[in-house]
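cron nightly-structures :: item 1 of 1
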Amino acid sequence: MLRTRIVLIIAFAFLCNAVCSCALHAGVVNPDISVIGQIIYKYHDDRTVADGRKPTLDLGETELVFDSYLNPYAKGTFVFSVGEEGLGTEEAYIDVIKGLPDGLALRGGKYRLGFGKLNPVHPHAYPFIDAPRVMGAMLPGEDGFNDIGTRASYFLPLPWASDISADVIKGLAFHPDEKNAAAGWLAHWNNSLLLGEATPLDVGVSATRGTNNVQWGTKTAVYGADIKTKIPFSSLTKLTLQGEYFYNNSTVAVDTNTGDPTHMGRQGFYAFADLNFKQRWNAGLIYDQYNPPENKDRTNRAIKCFAGYSLLEETTLLRITGERFKPENSPAVHTVMFQVLFSMGPHKAHQF
């Protein structure tokens, strides 16, 4: 499997190089091309799964990133992922960022949807290795909230920086196991303020709704609020504080005899503190809790410590995390992960 993935990456790189060479002769600007890879060591003590108490070493998902300005008004982006299932298109979209009336911007294609602070960002840009568990439990989608759609965004004429966006999406993230699609929507409002002279504060709210079962027409709605600030202690030291709250209201089943739906409301949140110091180091703590989809009356909790170190600059990053995950009415699971994240090209594995 590893050999197959490496061959796919090399073949794809040669293909892209050939395409870009032809484009260059045709007078078209080459796109920026990057490859972001990772190696992950993992150990956990969950005896209910096959790899419990067995150290594993895997080649994580590899990302191939291509982007370029198509003209002064528009930019195109492609993100391909190479994993155990082969080569897939993670994102492919166009942004129209200039030339529209009143500062309006548009996006169309397949992309990570702008719900909250973490979901729009690729996991390799997180200060920790993987996303908080609450996001997988609350948001639609199997690998992040990602869908085909169109977005319109607009900067509001307010005394502070404020933008609002609305997406019409195909809706596949809400029902990934069904071929038929039922459209959904998403809206996000973000506000950026300055506390004092050097402390930024971002506050936002999000909402989305879609069909989780096309046959029965049952719906899922998710509402969220997010907040983030960076407290600077010096030019090389800053503390990031961030959190998000989620409320998931879903119609999960329909009684075949009466036609009556069953509703389930669940909630959860995460909060983390991340200290970045000496430019190349970071360390922090994250806590999240949520009602799991299988039982809204239970509360699962997880606390994780994390640390990272960049070799000289941000193209090579070493990370380690230790987590205690406690499902309600079940034994706690302890997990240790170590990650080597590396990138080639202008898109770095992690930006300082």
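cron nightly-structures :: done
Confidence is low (pLDDT under 50) at residues 6-16, 18-27.
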